[in-house]
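Example complex used in Figure S2.
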Amino acid sequence: MGTKCCDCGNLNLPPRIICTECNGKRLEWHEFKGNGKLQTYTFIYTAPTFLKDKVPYAVGIAKLEEGPMIAARISDVDINESDRIKISTNVKIDYIQESGRNILTLRIE
Amino acid sequence: MIADKVAIIGAGITRFHHSLHLGKSTRELFVEAFLESLESVDKGINHKDIEALFIGNTVNEFFEHQSHLSSLLADWSGLLPIPSTRIETACASSSTALEMGTLAVASGMYNIVIVGGVEKMSTLQTDEMTWALMSGMDQAYECPLGVSNPGLYAMMAMAHFQKYGSTWEQLATISVKNHHNASLNPKAQYQSEIIDIANKIGQKKGLSFKDEMDFLKSSSNPYVAYPLRLFDCSPISDGASTVILASTEKAKNFTDTPIYISGLGHKSGTMSLHDRNDLTSIPSAVEAGKNAYKMANIEPKDIDVAMVHDCFTPAEMIAIEDLGFFAKGEGARASEEGRTSLSGEIPINTDGGLKAKGHPIAATGTAMAYEVWKQLRGEAEKRQVPNADVGLIHNIGATGGTAVVQIFKR
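Predicted assembly (519 residues):
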């Protein structure tokens, strides 16, 4: 879920309080379809404490078809299948549960 | 109005290092740099002449559980009761402190101030330190994913490779260059060429490496965030740096070679990397650079020597494009061709850069100013760039949430 500006129509993901395009303060919730293209990615080997046991894991940035870009974990690809990840491949937003939190993820189509 | 109204009359830094300062705290590191900067003033300076203190520090709360550094460092430097302010703009903290000090002197409020930065990083293990430094990223939308600072720059590198055809091998040449420069710098953390480090590690492990690239591609240079490996990343360091600023009128009392602050640029950028339109450039750096060039009334080609923010090798590649030294997409090739070496057309990171000189986070900005000050006064010894009259520093917070560019003239 992100926001749509009632004044200029700009979409923001993550949701904002002030529109990044026109500084408008009247924003409403907007549900994104979750389809996008991968812009870039990496595999993290040196992790913060809470993810030390999961290295190496992939993260990437996707550009959703509605416009905004968002960062997410690439949770369904491990290091041995790393050639499945290609820039500009189609991806789908999803979520996983981790330590009681929702983590945004990308699924490679 | 502000250009050339304020000058550097002295500067000092500790050696930057990951283990040499293990027994020293933040306050001791800062005082060491401060005392060196006092000694560096050509005609001498009295402690009592200093009227204000501006210090950069990013995350001392994590490393020492100590905040309120404004008071601590003024007290321990023997500067009470002058006004003291701690400034935090992630890795750009001390160049921002230098900017604030310059504005304070230019306003007429003070004649002489000290600006600087300090970071003590060696107290935490790698995973805890990674997490502490992730406080400079978006806590809500980047950190839970576990994407680290090297991870963000790795993604910028991958996007740059895709868009411009640059390669990791080209990035590696930046690391080789910076280690070479640091081998000539007694203040640098790593004073060895990469080939010497390779041979040493080879001896220990019973391996042999043909050349630097052979070593850099080996498992002795492990991945940190693909495609970036250990030698693409600036290290953990402890250190401090300080610079003494004076109004141009007063500067003559202290030195016959003041170095003038001619251009100031400072812009803020998006907190998250994904909120940026172009992942291969840092827009705040481009704009800060333009502002600094305009104030100094010069163009990129007029810069003789520059220190840029190579927290990771792709950051230097992107910096030299953003600053207008090379066209977009050409930064990697220019580095590979030696155009940014000590003898190249625009020497970049003559002190070894963050990679080899070290990166005690908030100490980096004023350490860059220290090197430019040395270069412009002809005091850079074996790293000296001939006829260096105009220098530039480029200091970035995280992935570009803050960008500070400053220009200095002899």
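Chain A touches chain B through 34 residues (CB under 8 Å). The longest strand of chain A covers residues 35-44.
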